[in-house]
Amino acid sequence: MSSFLNGLIYEKRGKDESAPALEPERRINNNIVLKKLRIAFSLKTDDILAILTEQQFRVSMPEITAMMRAPDHKNFRECGDQFLRYFLRGLAARQHVKKS
Q: How many CB atoms lie within 10 A of CB 7?
């Protein structure tokens, strides 16, 4: 899964030849998936909030930023399955509209 997401980042944003290749993580969780999708689609926190609002999922800006923090940070928050599910559904709907 991590290799797929790294490839998606390269496909959407282009590969930076000066940077070292991204190593796939051995263990992947919802926070890593969310971060990599955010990078691949060049999303800001406001964009993520808009995507979730379109899906009628209530979340605040601090909750989203807490999920983007390092796991050892005191304000880190786990990204739940339901959060990721609504985000993926909203992202797919948004990308489908762009292609049409």
A: 14
pTM summary value: 0.86
Please report which residue ranges of the chain form alpha helices under DSSP H.
2-13, 30-40, 45-54, 61-67, 81-99
Query: Per the structure, how many domains does the chain have?
Result: 1
Domain assignment of residue 17, given as a range: 2-99
Q: 30 and 83 in contact (C-beta within 8 Å)? A: yes
For 57-98, how does the pLDDT look when each residue is reduced to its tens digit (9 = 90+)? 999 999 999 999 999 999 999 999 999 999 999 999 988 877
DSSP 84: H
Structure tokens at 86: 């609504």
Q: How far apart are CA 59 and CA 53, in angstroms?
A: 8
